[in-house]
Amino acid sequence: MNSLHLKSFTRCKRKAWLDFKGKKSYEVWSPHKAIDKINQFQIFFEFCNGEIYTGLKACENGYQGVIGLKIKGNLFQNINAEILPQFLLKTKGKSKWGQYKYLPAVYKLGHKTTKEHLFDLAFCSMLLESFQESKIEKGLVISTFYKKVKVEEIYLNKKLRKKVLDVLLNLNECLEGSIPEITQDRKKCTICSWQKFCDKEAKEKGYLTDIDGIGSKTASLLKANGITNTQILASYSEKQLGEKLSKFKDQKYEKASIFVKQAQAYISGEPYFISNKNNTEDLLEKICSGFYIFDIESNPDEKHDFLYGFLKVDNLSIKKENLIYEPILNLKNNKGESYGQIIEILFSRKEWPVLHYGETEKISIINIAKELNFSFEEIDSLSSRFIDLHTLIRKSCILPLKNYGLKTVSNWLGFEWAQKNVSGSKALYWWIQYQITENQIFLKKIIQYNKDDCFATLQIAEYLIKNRLKKN
């Protein structure tokens, strides 16, 4: 076992087991991992003023920062272990290499230092101590806050080390056993490289958390009342279920109805249409004279929208290949220019509504308008033009899907992206690569992805209009 297995284990026992024993052909490349690696290197590089070197030779030569070192050792009870320290920082002391030693350090994204960081530092220190023949009293958590490098010292006391040893024993037992059950709390599964593998099993076994709106707490409540899978839920009386959902108070019967119908749709593969004629008729009326489809690509960690994409649709009868797509690149040093282009597009057709999927796009434009000192009346007028199809499709139908994300819904409708296995996180990965290399290939990939997102949003709008008169 190694430090990466420990990191996975603190998040999900099943992930740790799959990382250790799972068939690699079932694992999907994760852009989140790649982005994390890039961010790690950039912050460590800045922290050491560029003096970063790789492997054992770097330690022997006494360089300031060391990455890419693997250390194997025996912990206890003949348990073999391996650490892959994210970063080693040279400091005063004495080791087998001379009048210096190394401290383990980890990279932190966000403000909170978690047990994942603490366990990683403590585990690394155990094998690093014997390897460099020098005691380690503390480790470092390095992060950036408002573009400034921040360092937090973590004292690796006996209590923390004992706790980590206990966790390592549990990890070793887990890795030697059979595959653990799928975790009930599946919020972070979206960024896991094993998600598709687990999704397949979850659907086959009828996991309740596959049903949109049912999290781990609601699933536990349902199980306590004898509803253990999606098949039982789909055949359950809505009224009887509502009586068991007291935690939802006045919404308990409404929630019960949605849960049962969502389970029925999920199993049958057929959508359930809700009477929502007014909203969809209103959509048709608003877009009949033309409209924009709007989609954004962003880096949430830096709160930076790096690409705005507009698709101009004069009417729905125009062939897709004749529609005009306009991307606007938003570099941090020329945002005034890009903001001007956005406003120019929006106000060239003042009467056109702006269709988007999710709340991000509307919030972003309102923030731009505020930055450009628009009046309250102007902001209100601009805001009223935005139509969120994500909200509208939830009000109009219950789809046979586990979530209502743009990719999930449009894939179900048969939309095909020009590039395989794409996602917002992969677009962000391309953006980071573009910033590092200035290679236009990455920019072209992002623009193609955003363009496809716009056309996927258009397909959802067409689906809503086509099915506006349907009701189960």
Automatic annotation (TrEMBL):
InterPro entries linked: Dna2/Cas4_DUF83 (IPR022765), PDDEXK-like_dom_sf (IPR011604), RecB_nuclease_TM0106_put (IPR019993), RNaseH-like_sf (IPR012337), YprB_RNase_H-like_dom (IPR038720)
Q: Say which domain of life the source belongs to.
A: Bacteria
Q: Coiled-coil regions in this chain?
A: none
One family name in Pfam for this protein: Cas_Cas4
Q: Which residues form the DUF83 domain?
A: 107-198
Q: Which residues form the YprB ribonuclease H-like domain?
A: 293-464
NCBIfam families to which the protein is assigned, alphabetical: TM0106 family RecB-like putative nuclease
Query: Per its record, how is this protein called by name?
Result: DNA repair enzyme
* Species annotation: Prochlorococcus marinus str. SB
